[in-house]
């Protein structure tokens, strides 16, 4: 009777799921788009590492990912839509006005990411958020 009670309690309480860590299946160069073939799951948990392939597929590697090593969340991000030194359409918008000019990207960034852009007209550097390919909107404080 006690064996059934213990077994019932174990089932009701649930058995902890085995933790898995996402690792690179092969060495992946920086700026490569990750696919399912690039990824493997290994048993165990690594703090800061991704744990499911869906979290990484379609993202871009920010650094070289070495085979068998865990893939950390800050090592991947959205694919870059703006490249360094690329001319971008730079927009400053408020509820009352909209100013559009041309700028030069001072780094690489993906959709929604922030980067520094040199306003070609005024020669000042502003922080902007990427809104599309070759497009950025000035971030206001």
UniProtKB/TrEMBL annotation:
User: Where located?
Assistant: Periplasm
List the GO biological process terms.
bacterial-type flagellum assembly
Pfam families according to UniProt: ChapFlgA
UniProt keywords, alphabetically: Bacterial flagellum biogenesis, Cell projection, Cilium, Flagellum, Periplasm, Signal
Entry's Gene Ontology cellular component terms: periplasmic space
Annotated function: Involved in the assembly process of the P-ring formation. It may associate with FlgF on the rod constituting a structure essential for the P-ring assembly or may act as a modulator protein for the P-ring assembly.
The name of this protein is: Flagella basal body P-ring formation protein FlgA
Origin species = Dinoroseobacter shibae (strain DSM 16493 / NCIMB 14021 / DFL 12)
């Amino acid at each position: 009777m006690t064996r059934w009670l213990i077994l019932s309690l174990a089932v009701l309480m649930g058995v902890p799921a085995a933790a898995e860590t996402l690792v690179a299946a092969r060495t992946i160069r920086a700026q490569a788009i990750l696919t399912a073939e690039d990824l493997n799951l290994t048993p165990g948990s690594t703090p800061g590492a991704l744990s499911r392939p869906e979290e990484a597929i379609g993202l871009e590697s920010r650094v070289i990912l070495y085979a068998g090593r865990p893939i950390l969340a800050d090592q991947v991000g959205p694919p870059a839509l703006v490249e360094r030194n690329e001319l971008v359409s730079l927009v400053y918008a408020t509820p009352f006005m909209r100013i559009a000019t041309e700028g030069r990207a001072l780094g690489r960034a993906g959709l929604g990411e922030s980067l520094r852009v040199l306003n070609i007209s005024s020669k000042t550097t502003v922080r902007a958020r990427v809104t599309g390919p070759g497009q950025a909107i000035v971030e206001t404080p």
